[in-house]
Amino acid sequence: xxxxxxxxxxxxxxxxxxxxxxxxxxxxxxxxxxxxxxxxxxxxxxxxxxxxxxxxxxxxxxxxxxxxxxxxxxxxxxxxxxxxxxxxxxxxxxxxxxxxxxxxxxxxxxxxxxxxxxxxxxxxxxxxxxxxxxxxxxxxxxxxxxxxxxxxxxxxxxxxxxxxxxxxxxxxxxxxxxxxxxxxxxxxxxxxxxxxxxxxxxxxxxxxxxxxxxxxxxxxxxxxxxxxxxxxxxxxxxxx
Length: 240
Fold this sequence. Notes:
By secondary structure, the protein is α+β, with helices and mostly antiparallel strands. It has helices spanning 89-92, 113-123, 212-239; strands spanning 7-12, 18-23, 26-33, 39-47, 53-59, 68-73, 76-87, 94-100, 137-142, 151-155, 157-158, 162-166, 176-183, 186-198, 202-207.
């Protein structure tokens, strides 16, 4: 985290409603598919941040409202929707207002704890039965017709009902897939359906044939993985 002073203010941003935001200038990485259909990856700056969105500056690639991009701050990343774009000149290039997608966790949550608690309470009205956990979880994606090659990949967040896979070339919404994964030494195969497709970012897949018992076991398995990773990271930071 850079050593810049942070100050809080209430400003109007994106949705014309006042809310407390942090005026900062933090370095982020952004990636996705630009408005010309080309994949991109670059560094940028995020300011006027909250748990719901941010103002990105120094964006050199063309974007337009409705585009979905990935944003990473430190080791945390999330998916955002472009709300507006302004040409800010030679130095700041494009300025882009972005809003976090539903069920994503803010990459700069440590800087906006109060806002994060507010957003969490709001999203709680529509929360999943099984919360997803941000862990790298190996899966294999196949297809019912067996004519296309299987893909070995990792889900970047997963729960008992589905997962999200980061990829520049996601499958289209409605594509039926076969998902294979392992819980310890036990192999599980289920069908799935692509429910979200974000070009240049990734796709969300719902598991459509897991019975409630297996869903619960998967949820508990992922929660243990997440807890173990968190404990290991904490021990590593303490040793450092």
